[in-house]
Design goal:
Helices cover 41% and strands 18% of the residues. It has 360 residues and is of the alpha/beta class. The strands form three sheets. A five-stranded mixed β-sheet has the order 3-2-1-4-5, with helices on both faces. The longest helix is centred in the C-terminal third of the chain and has 32 residues, at 253-284. The protein starts with a strand and ends in a 9-residue tail after the last helix. The structure holds 5'-O-[(R)-(carboxyoxy)(hydroxy)phosphoryl]adenosine and zinc ion.
Length: 360
């Protein structure tokens, strides 16, 4: 079965053609990163406009890359939640128009859940043999822990109560004036840090949130980085605005690498601890996880990948992490999840809508 996937939930316009949920015939991603970089984050209005401008070109490219026509497509899958509603609507409207005009079945896909289908792309792994799984989605918009059961049934058991981990990376990079997106550059600098660089940085807080919580918090970490970089602010008596002791430009490269390393350690350690706790929680409930599934942009992170392998090795289960190209937002994962989802009937297809939240 050939599924056409369409993704427009945030700042990537993507279309892919995937066969039977695993074999990628084409995966085209038009990133808007450069258009948002000046603002230090995604601007929803700009994102929607760029999706509308680019979607048709990306679709044509995906079809030509896979040497197929729309008539060969057996199903259309579109991410319709969660995300920026205006951005999602562009993909949803396009998918409905395509499905309607070519008389092709349509499915709406949860973008966050689809991140966990990505580890299986371009593999011959049996999905059923990997369920039930512990699932971790770590991206710029989401940080969630799941129990994933056969048939892609998701139970969210924890996640961030404030910033997503990728968002914390992006904000830390913004404070350090390292550009956007922050994840890749902080990861690179953290890996380059020497022992002296690391010793020169303060340690950052690792969120815990109580002895049995499976939730995470990254806002304290973000503030700790701000204070480490600029000092603890005082208030301007006239304007009430914070006044900092110093600027990011006052730091030496050694200090920047040290802070990146300490930040990465705190962020990944927080996640690793919750993975361990989630495993204990799940096994105590009588469920034996058969694998660890990880997805989302932060799954590209070197330290998180190491932590995932360490975690899985100790429990003798496989850690399934996508190839780099399928960690960040892409439409191949949407097409894959679309393959495993029942298509909508005619009236549900007409009513398919975009939703900001994961569930109503
Ligand atoms: O999955 P994604 O493309 O978009 C969302 O659904 O949010 O993830 C983008 C996020 C950004 O916050 C980016 O900084 C982060 O993934 N990211 C990384 C790395 N590569 C991308 N974070 C940490 N380390 C990386 N190597
Ligand atoms: Zn995503």
């Amino acid at each position: 079965m050939l599924v056409l996937g369409i993704e427009s939930s945030c700042d990537e316009t993507a279309v892919a053609v995937v066969e039977d949920g695993v074999r990628v015939h084409a995966s085209v991603v038009a990133s808007q990163v450069d258009s948002h970089a000046a603002y230090g984050g995604v601007v929803p209005e700009i994102a929607s406009r760029l999706h509308a401008e680019r979607l048709q070109l990306v679709l044509e490219r995906a079809l030509s890359d896979s040497s197929i026509t729309l008539n060969d497509i057996d199903r259309i899958a579109v991410s319709n939640r969660p995300g920026l509603v205006g951005a999602l609507l562009v993909g949803v409207a396009a998918a409905k128009a395509l499905a309607w005009s070519t008389d092709t079945p349509l499915v709406g896909v949860n973008h966050v859940h689809a991140h966990l289908a990505a580890p299986f792309l371009e593999t011959s792994l049996s999905i059923d043999a990997h369920m039930p799984a512990i699932g971790l989605v770590a991206s710029g918009g989401h940080t969630s822990l799941y129990v994933v059961r056969t048939g892609w049934k998701f139970e969210r058991i924890g996640g961030t109560i404030d910033d997503a981990v990728g968002e914390a990376y992006d904000k830390a990079a913004s404070v350090l004036e390292l550009g956007y997106p922050g994840g890749p550059v902080i990861d690179k600098l953290a890996q380059a840090a020497s022992a002296d660089d690391r010793n020169g940085s303060p340690a950052f807080p690792i969120s815990n949130l109580g002895p049995s919580s499976l939730d995470l918090s990254f806002s304290g970490l973000k503030t700790a980085v701000l204070y480490a970089v600029k000092g603890v602010p005082t208030r301007d008596t006239m304007t009430g605005k914070p006044v900092y002791e110093r600027a990011a430009s006052d730091l030496t490269m050694n200090q920047v690498r040290g802070i990146c390393s300490a930040f990465q350690h705190a962020a990944v350690e927080a996640i690793e601890r919750k993975l361990i706790r989630a495993y204990e929680h799940i096994t105590a409930a009588g469920i034996q996880p058969c694998s660890l599934l990880i997805g989302g942009g932060v799954a590209a992170n070197s330290a998180l990948r190491e932590a995932a392998h360490r975690f899985a090795l100790k429990r003798q289960i496989p850690a399934c992490i996508p190839e780099f190209a399928y960690c960040i937002d892409n439409a191949a994962m949407i097409a894959a999840m679309g393959y495993y989802t029942d298509p909508l009937d005619q009236s549900a297809m007409v009513e398919l809508d975009a939703h900001a939240r994961s569930h109503a």
